[in-house]
């Protein structure tokens, strides 16, 4: 076990993913629409998903890794859309 030392935000904390719930691979912007790296589907729509860069430390080492939405939901207990809704509900503009 280790301790989360840092959440890196310089790479962003979400990515555009395939609308296919079983695919969830990232999409490439191909000009006006997106193409899936996984299944090859092209669409103008995407599903935003977590992609969180973490640094975890223990007594001997420091490891950086990426947590995707499926794993992130296990400890955040919220999907991206739920989290975003919470953020906007708590912001007074
Ligand atoms: Zn796909």
Task: Outline the structure in words.
- By secondary structure, the chain is α+β, with helices and mostly antiparallel strands.
- The chain has a single domain, classed as Nucleic acid-binding proteins (OB fold (Dihydrolipoamide Acetyltransferase, E2P)), CATH 2.40.50.140.
- It is built from two helices and seven strands; from the N terminus they run E-E-E-E-E-E-E-H-H.
- The strands form two sheets. Strands 1, 2, 6 and 7 form a four-stranded antiparallel β-sheet that branches. Strands 3-4-5 form a three-stranded antiparallel β-sheet, with no helix packed on it.
- The longest helix has 10 residues.
- The structure holds zinc ion (ZN).
- Zinc ion binds next to loops.
- InterPro entries: NA-bd_OB-fold, Rep_factor-A_C.
What top-tier CATH class fits best? Mainly Beta
The gross shape turns out to be globular
The SSE order reads: EEEEEEEHH
Total strands:
7
The helix tally amounts to: 2
Task: Please give the structural blueprint.
Elements: E1 3-8, E2 14-17, E3 27-29, E4 34-36, E5 42-43, E6 47-57, E7 62-68, H1 69-76, H2 80-89
Antiparallel strand pairs: 1-6, 2-6, 3-4, 4-5, 6-7
Bound molecules: zinc ion.
What labels would you give this structure?
single chain; 93 residues; alpha+beta; OB fold (Dihydrolipoamide Acetyltransferase, E2P); 4-stranded antiparallel beta sheet; 2 helices; 39% strand; binds zinc ion; Replication factor A C-terminal domain-containing protein; NA-bd_OB-fold
